[in-house]
Design brief:
Elements: H1 3-6, H2 10-19, E1 22-31, E2 37-48, E3 52-54, H3 60-65, H4 69-88, E4 95-98, H5 101-105, H6 107-120, E5 127-131, H7 140-151, E6 156-162, H8 167-171, E7 179-183, H9 185-193, H10 198-211, E8 215-219, H11 224-233, E9 237-239, H12 255-263, H13 271-277, H14 298-326, H15 334-373, H16 399-410, H17 415-431, H18 439-454, H19 472-489
Parallel strand pairs: 2-4, 4-5, 5-6, 6-7, 7-8, 8-9
Antiparallel strand pairs: 1-2, 1-9, 2-3
């Protein structure tokens, strides 16, 4: 069924690539010498949404006619690499994909292939690129350059030959292929009957493979008679439905190797050997025994001495670094500790002394305030409860007066601050109303001040005594005269 029969279009290709409708399957290739699995060849099927599953022959020619073969090849390569690594990781035997000649002439394919291998960290030697014979109208030089370009990727190259070997395969030098793949009804019929038209064709291919030291694989083995004859003719590997059908990688069983060995008249592998063939991790390897050395060689002894010295130096440095990192923090100097303790004691003792002096100053200030408030009063008895010139209810000391007295005791203010404090104290005293019984004294003092103002200017008043020698009563009443005079003026 061709592409025209199923009526494909570019829209179908776009949708299939977008929806990943292409399915990648694999068929095993077996080594005819021991029946081992040589590799897995990938095939593609198109699960069309309306046409069902399409084989490669139904759509490959349409891809080529639309110039979109490279898109399909890159899709199959990525999917095959992903599925194989999920099955075997980066272990043997590897897999192969089929290329179109347009892939070989595409200069970007080799770089794309190498990048994909780097992304999966996959060895190139486990990938076989199966290449077609170049068309007869292609310049042999161009074909050689195309094969050489993909060969530099370190992947294995296989050339597919249908029928006889042409002149290109006979003359290309150097021979870039690691394997020749061939098949067809004529060759397989010759393998079964050892006569017919396939005799010369298979002889040429076998001769080319032998001269190029390349493997030769038979394709399409469908029965036991063909398989038995191919090994005797010199074929190294074979594939076909008789050996293993196309299917999913997960469906392949290692016991299939023993079935092929039985078909080749070989003893089956033991379960241990079979498991070893499909092991994905490296077995434990014993360490090699040290090689014997010649102790009489002076050069060897000098090298050994140098190595010993280097090892000792490294060991010393390592030990020093370890000791330095594990060394505890150095203890404090006893002298420094004692000095700091003495400073703390002196500081505490001074604080106690300051607290004692403050307490004594507070006590003295309170004592003076009490003495001042309980002094005899000159005024007459009034309704305020004064009897015999003494007050039974002394006025309490105002907080600001106590603060001023404390400041004087500690002498903690400078001279300007003292004057400011005295001025504030004087203002507070002036603003305070006169005590009962002091009104007459204030009036008398006001009258005396008025008489002095009328006296002649030549008359000098007597020198005032220092403030310290003034009697307590005068000192107390002096600040009270000015407010009284002011009130009288008003």
């Amino acid at each position: 069924m061709g592409a025209q029969a199923v009526r494909l279009s570019n829209v179908d290709i776009d949708n299939a690539l977008k929806n990943k409708d292409f399915e990648v399957l694999f068929q095993p290739i077996f080594d005819l010498a021991n029946g081992a699995l040589a590799r897995m060849e990938s095939f593609v099927r198109w699960r069309h949404q309306s046409l069902g599953v399409l084989p490669p022959g139904a759509f490959i020619s349409f891809f080529e006619s639309q110039g979109r073969m490279s898109e399909l090849t890159r899709y199959v390569l990525a999917e095959a690499l992903r599925e194989y690594t999920a099955w075997r990781g980066t272990s043997a035997p590897g897999f192969s994909i089929n290329l179109a000649f347009s892939d070989l002439t595409d200069e970007s394919f080799a770089s794309h292939f190498e990048k994909l291998l780097r992304d999966y960290d996959f060895p190139a030697e486990l990938v076989t690129l199966e290449c077609p014979m170049p068309p007869v109208d292609v310049d042999p030089k161009i074909a050689e350059a195309s094969f050489s370009r993909v060969k530099r990727t370190d992947a294995r190259l296989a050339i597919e030959v249908r029928g006889r070997a042409n002149e290109f395969l006979k003359t290309i030098d150097p021979f870039p292929f690691d394997e020749i793949k061939t098949g067809g009804s004529a060759i397989l019929r010759f393998a079964r009957t050892v006569r017919g038209p396939g005799l010369s064709a298979i002889s040429d291919l076998l001769d080319i493979a032998r001269r190029a030291n390349a493997a030769i694989t038979a394709v399409g083995v469908e029965d036991q008679a063909s398989l038995a004859a191919l090994k005797g003719l010199g074929f190294t590997a074979a594939q076909g439905n008789h050996l293993g059908e196309v299917g999913d990688l997960k469906a392949f069983r290692p016991t299939r190797v023993n079935d092929v060995r039985k078909s080749l008249d070989l003893e089956p592998f033991s379960p241990e050997d079979l498991a070893a063939l499909f092991r994905t991790t490296a077995p434990e390897v014993r360490a090699p025994e040290p090689a014997e050395t010649n102790d009489d060689d002076p050069a060897q002894e000098e090298d050994d001495a140098l190595v010993r010295r280097l090892n000792e130096r490294v060991a010393r440095q390592t030990a020093a670094d370890a000791a330095k990192s594990s060394q505890p923090k150095a203890e404090e100097d006893p002298t420094e500790r004692l000095r700091r303790a003495a400073k703390a004691k002196i500081k505490e003792k001074r604080a106690e002394q300051r607290r004692a002096r403050k307490a004594a100053a507070i006590a003295r200030a309170k004592s003076k305030a009490n003495q001042k408030d309980t002094r005899p009063n000159i005024g007459v008895a009034g309704n305020d409860g004064m009897v015999g010139g003494e007050s039974h209810n002394p006025q309490p000391v105002a907080p600001h007066e106590l603060q001023d007295r404390l400041s004087e005791e500690f002498n903690i203010v400078d001279e300007p601050d003292k004057k400011h404090a005295e001025s504030k104290s004087k203002e507070r005293e002036e603003s305070k109303p006169p005590a009962p019984g002091e009104t007459e004294d204030a009036v008398a003092a006001q009258q005396a001040d008025a008489n002095e103002a009328k006296a002649p200017e030549t008359e000098q008043p007597p020198a005032a005594e220092p403030a310290e020698e003034t009697a307590p009563a005068s000192a107390t009443s002096a600040p009270l005269e000015e407010p009284a005079a002011t009130d009288a003026g008003v």
